[in-house]
Amino acid sequence: YMRRVDHQDTLKVVGQLAAGIAHEIRNPMTSLKGFIQLLEPNLKDHQKMYFEVINSELKRIETIMTEFLMLAKPKNTVFEKINLTRVLADTVDMMKPQAILHDVDIKFNARQSEHLTFGDANRLKQVFINLIKNALEAMPDKGEIFVSVETSGNQHLISVKDNGCGIPEEKLNKLNEPFFTTKVNGTGLGLPVSLKIIEEHQGTVNVISRLYEGTEFKIGLPLME
Ligand code: ADP
Ligand code: MG
């Protein structure tokens, strides 16, 4: 057989390779983490700082690996009938302690008590967590986050809105680029992973942002038939 190898094939192979490597890195990481813990009780004072650095860098590698694996090799999604009002309410409750630390108030408003769709609740939660985290990080001192869901036409519309730093116009088209980040400790994987999850749900993502005023992410998801 003759077969043209196109760009898509190359991307697929690179993705599989990267996922394979990421997976292989996780095992030695686990043993590093385990053995480093054993050293802790015997550390001299001046070594404690080294220990903290090693630990936080290990954590960082782990975060990148987890998010990267989600992007390169997504787990099989479990689609079922879910209530977006419930999923969003749970997510908002979960994020409240972090918001309080930032002096941020999260307001949640659902038009109806039920907004049914066909989807994977855990993966959608991951999306909402990513968006709320970004909103928090855009408001280091204080601010407000508005989360809402309503049904409009043939879709559910979810909005996550903040009055934070905003995104400069020339950066808007970089948001779906893996590893694009403006943060010292960012991974640049939160939004690409979120976009992928929404795509798997046949949904849409739109962003409206004004520099120094705030940002709104709008997600459209299909209605449950
Ligand atoms: P990370 O949060 O690790 O940087 P993301 O993919 O979640 O990676 O976001 C990429 C970039 O998009 C962020 O570094 C930031 O510059 C910008 N961004 C995303 N959400 C917001 C927001 N709500 N307000 C301002 N900037 C944002
Ligand atoms: Mg993020």
UniProtKB/TrEMBL annotation:
Histidine kinase domain residues: 20-225
Name of the protein in its database record: histidine kinase
Organism of this sequence: Jeotgalibacillus salarius
